[in-house]
Automatic annotation (TrEMBL):
Assembly mode: Monomer.
Region (NMP): 31-60
EC number: 2.7.4.3
Organism: Belliella baltica (strain DSM 15883 / CIP 108006 / LMG 21964 / BA134)
GO molecular function: AMP kinase activity; ATP binding
Gene symbol of the encoding locus: adk
Function: Catalyzes the reversible transfer of the terminal phosphate group between ATP and AMP. Plays an important role in cellular energy homeostasis and in adenine nucleotide metabolism.
Protein family per UniProt: Belongs to the adenylate kinase family.
Pathway membership, UniProt: Purine metabolism; AMP biosynthesis via salvage pathway; AMP from ADP: step 1/1
InterPro entries in UniProt: Adenylat/UMP-CMP_kin, Adenylat_kinase_CS, P-loop_NTPase
Keyword Iron-sulfur belongs to the record: no
Record-listed AMP binding positions: T32, R37, R58, L59, V60, G86, F87, P88, R89, Q93, R134, R146
One Gene Ontology term from the biological process aspect of the record: AMP salvage
Keywords annotated in UniProt: ATP-binding, Cytoplasm, Kinase, Nucleotide biosynthesis, Nucleotide-binding, Transferase
Official protein name in the record: Adenylate kinase
C-alpha cells in the first residue's frame, strides 16, 4: 500500500496535486480541511466546533482532528492506500497517525513537501479567495495567521518524517504537470 503525506504551507498546491495522485495511483483522499468543511456545511457539532478555529486560521485541537482521521481510516475499505492532505499538522498528530496505522499493520511510505516562497503563497490564496468562498482566504490578517501557524506548529512535522528518513522536498513552483511529474518520480520509488 502507498500511504503518502502531502505536506506544505497553505496555498502550496496540496489539493491540486492530491487530485492527480489519486487518479494515477488510485488512492483514497483524506483531507482534514475538506472533512471539516463538509461537517461545517452539514451543520454537525464537529463542524460548529471546527468553524471557530478555521475562520480565524487557527488549528482545530489535536484530539478532535485525530479522532476524525482515525474514524475515516477505519471506515475505509483497504484500497491502494491514502493520501494525507493537510494532516498531520502538528507533531502530536504525526505520532498519533503512526500509532493508528501501526495498529492496522500499515505505515507511511513517505512525505512529499511542496516548497513555495511566501509571496507566491499569499498571491495564490488571495486569488483562490475570489472564488472559494472561504472566509480564511479573504482576509489578509487570516492569511498571515495561517502562515504563522504553519511556521510555528506545522513545519516541525517535516522534521519528524526527516528523522524517519521519509522526507522528500519538491519545488512547488512551475506548471501543475511539471510539479506532478516530479512528485510521481518520488512516489514510483516507494
Ligand atoms: P490550507 O491548505 O489552505 O491550509 P485546509 O483546507 O487544509 O487549508 O485547512 C483549512 C483550515 O482547517 C485550517 O486553517 C485549520 O483551521 C483547519 N484544519 C485543517 N486540517 C487541520 C489539522 N490537521 N489540524 C488542525 N486544524 C486543521
Amino acid at each position: 500500500m502507498l500511504n503518502i503525506v502531502l505536506f506544505g504551507p497553505p496555498g502550496a498546491g496540496k489539493g491540486t496535486q492530491s487530485e492527480k495522485l489519486i487518479e494515477k495511483y488510485n488512492l483514497t483522499h483524506l483531507s482534514t480541511g475538506d472533512l471539516f468543511r463538509k461537517h461545517l456545511g452539514e451543520g454537525t457539532d464537529l463542524g460548529k466546533l471546527a468553524r471557530k478555529y478555521m475562520d480565524e486560521g487557527r488549528l482545530v485541537p489535536d484530539e478532535v482532528v485525530i479522532g476524525m482521521v482515525e474514524d475515516k481510516i477505519k471506515e475505509t475499505k483497504s484500497g491502494n492506500g491514502f493520501i494525507f492532505d493537510g494532516f498531520p499538522r502538528t507533531v502530536a498528530q504525526a505520532s498519533a497517525l503512526d500509532k493508528v496505522l501501526e495498529d492496522l499493520s500499515l505505515k507511511i511510505s513517505g512525505m512529499i513537501a511542496l516548497d513555495v516562497p511566501e509571496d507566491i503563497l499569499k498571491e495564490r490564496i488571495r486569488e483562490r479567495g475570489k472564488t472559494s468562498g472561504r472566509v480564511d482566504d479573504q482576509d489578509e490578517s487570516k492569511i498571515e495567521t495561517r502562515i504563522k501557524v504553519y511556521l510555528d506548529e506545522t513545519l516541525p512535522v517535516a522534521g519528524y518524517y526527516k528523522g524517519q528518513g521519509k522526507l522528500t522536498k519538491i519545488h512547488g513552483v512551475g506548471t501543475i504537470d511539471e510539479i506532478f511529474d516530479n512528485i510521481a518520480k518520488v512516489v514510483d520509488q516507494y
